[in-house]
Design a protein that fits this description.
Layout: E1 4-10, E2 17-22, H1 26-29, H2 34-37, H3 39-46, E3 57-62, E4 68-75, E5 80-81, E6 99-103, E7 109-113, E8 118-120, E9 126-128, E10 144-150, H4 152-157, E11 163-166, E12 173-185, E13 192-193, E14 197-201, E15 210-216, E16 227-232, H5 244-247, E17 252-256, E18 261-262, E19 267-278
Parallel strand pairs: 2-3
Antiparallel strand pairs: 1-2, 3-4, 4-5, 6-7, 8-9, 10-19, 11-17, 12-16, 12-19, 13-18, 14-15, 14-17
């Protein structure tokens, strides 16, 4: 079938949009009187005469380049389409540099500058801003990072009240520690007493939980200067027998053995690199 093969109107839009498919080329459909020459064809595919409105925009699928779409305006005086594609409705023929057309709440295409984490140039090159991709955005199987502040009171008290570093990941999940750094900012008084420090699963007191990292000697924390203390996950450092009942869906805590630290007033940040893996 040559010429127009289908025609329909999108109801409920202003201005109205008429959709046409045709086997003709762009050169043919933009000739003066094209729609008049297709009257019989239009009535055949529409099962009757087609009612045109003077404000109609016409979205045409024509045969150039294996099939192309274009918007045209209906020209009632000559029964034609405009001689070239047009920009319909509230779209303007110009668009501010770097802006995009976005559908508004009223279903109207509107020019908007791209804001937020992603930027785009007027050459079409997109980029993600610095420090925009966070651990919470990526797969839980990937290595993640969190920084947890620890006060002097929390460090001194973690023997009896282990310090929560990371909440449990949910049913059938296990937090796997890759590495951690306790960065201590010395204030005026050094820590004393205490016992070996380590990361553990769950909040068992006195550092008696299932180990999630190696341990650091208590005396190391007596330093009278700002100091960092490095920890690794248990693999390769110590025997790591971890029954699911004591590790799966358990939070990660910092605690110490033997007794509470005393006297110190330095503050810490625990920098933690970890993954959350499924256990089933």
């Amino acid at each position: 079938m040559a010429g127009i093969t289908s025609i329909s109107r999108d109801w409920g839009f202003a201005p109205s949009i008429v959709r046409i498919s045709t086997t003709d080329t762009l050169a043919t459909i933009t000739t003066t009187g094209y729609l008049l020459t297709q009257t019989d064809q239009i009535e055949a595919v529409n099962a009757g005469p087609f009612d045109w409105a003077v404000t109609d925009y016409v979205l045409v699928y024509y045969s150039d380049a294996g099939g192309s779409w274009g918007f045209f305006q209906y020209v009632p005086a000559t029964g034609s389409l405009t001689a070239a594609p047009v920009v319909p409705g509230s779209l303007s023929a110009t668009l501010p540099s770097g802006d995009l057309f976005v559908g508004s709440a009223g279903n109207v295409a509107t020019a908007r500058a791209l804001t937020g984490d992603i930027a785009i140039t007027n050459t079409g090159v997109s980029s993600i801003g610095a420090n925009k991709v966070l651990s919470s955005m990526v797969s839980p199987l990937l290595e993640k990072y969190v920084a947890v502040p620890i006060t002097a009171a929390q460090f001194n008290g973690m023997y009896a009240a282990p310090m929560l570093l990371l909440a449990a990941g949910g049913a059938n999940t296990l937090i796997v520690v890759k590495r951690a750094v306790l960065a201590m900012t010395f204030v005026s008084a050094a820590y004393a007493a205490g016992g070996v420090v380590g990361l553990q699963y769950d909040s068992t007191v006195h550092g008696a939980g299932v180990a999630a990292s190696n341990t650091e000697a208590a005396a190391d924390f007596f330093a009278a200067a700002s100091t960092s203390f490095a920890f690794n996950g248990v693999a390769g450092n110590t025997v790591a027998i971890a029954p699911f009942t004591t590790t799966v869906n358990k939070g990660l805590y910092l605690s110490n053995q033997t007794g509470a630290f005393t006297t110190g007033d330095g503050t810490f940040i625990c920098h933690l690199w970890y993954s959350i893996i499924p256990t089933v």
